[in-house]
Amino acid sequence: MSNKATYYEKSNSLSLSLSLSNRLKNRFGSNTNPNLKTNPGFTIVELLVVIVVIGILAAITIVSYTGISTKAVTASVQSDLTNASTQLKVFMATNGAFPTAINCPTPGTTEICLKSSGGNSFTYKPVNTTNPQAFHLTNTNTNGTNYLITDNSAPYTAISCPANYIVVPGNSTYGTNDFCVMKYGAKNVGGVATSQAASTPWVSISQTTAITTAAAACTGCHLITEGEFLTIAQNVLTVPSNWSNGTVGSGYIPRGNSDSGAAMDATSDLTGINKRTLTLTNGEVIWDLAGNVWEWTSGTVQSPTVQPGITGTGANWREWPNVTNPGTMSPNPSAAATGIAGASGWNSGNGIGLIYSNTEETGLRGFLRGGLWNFGSFAGVLTLSLNNSPGDAAANIGFRVSR
Fold this sequence. Notes:
By secondary structure, this protein is an alpha+beta fold. The chain has four helices and 20 strands. The protein has two domains: 88 residues; 244 residues, paralog of FGE (formylglycine-generating enzyme), CATH 3.90.1580. The strands form seven sheets. The protein has a six-stranded mixed beta sheet. Strands 3-4-5-6 form a four-stranded antiparallel beta sheet, with helices on one face. A two-stranded parallel sheet has the order 1-2. Strand 9 and strand 10 form a beta hairpin.
């Protein structure tokens, strides 16, 4: 019985081996019998698996290459900016001033030749004609991305703004990064808030409506915030050429169209204390930051937050140095909070304007900035009125859009 069992086991094993061998030969072919017909192809499932794997590997390779290529271009652009910045500072040390322009290949005595590599292009802008001087140098790479360096910064990516918006450098005091703002106060063009010189400002609009109207002006747009407004104000206050005596804090900073009979378009500037344009540290120019019409910001204040003022004296117009209760608003809107040396003593005689507030006010109030066309010394880049509710609208109240 054991021999028969052994025989059957060997017979079954041999049959299984022969069956498996034949199946493998039919599947993959045989080198021992050239007359045997075989089928060496892959199944559809196997082909799909291979194609998917190849696709994944190709995608990984392309993404990796693109990332490496982008980093290489960025590194090249930033390196060019750093080297050019060094050349500009050497020029300043040698000549006592930054160059007036880039002129290649034959720069003059007040010019310099700066070249960027790999098809990138420089755009140079000197800032201020008196000390402290500064410069802004932009390098645009072949992909159209702008990188910027200043006299006191490392290279960084520059933002792009819509037409007739300007770039405002961010400020850590007010928690802002670089942003775009309308060069002109908002104008009503077919119901769309538009930055343009022509026509008088869009007025008779409440803060509530200005918020929704500003948001519809462009993708990412919004009514200018308090932090953004104060960033602009602090910036222009530090530019010597904005001051009448060419030194920060000496003389006055213009308060715009504040001594006339009506709001104006932005096709012509005024002079002296009524000059309507102010220059930022990056060389950009903004119109009517003070004067012309009131402009809403998105700021509001309500108890228990306390307005700046003088406790127990009610609502009134006050010079900034006379404010004895700084309140609890954030950001702090005072001249002293700008951090500029001597600013705590500036008043309307320096062109910064006044504040209308009430430390005892408990109702909701919106922020109005700048003053209007007949406001005289009450107008200014730091003028603030906390007398209106967000739903108020008047023929002398407009707004400005940021992004």
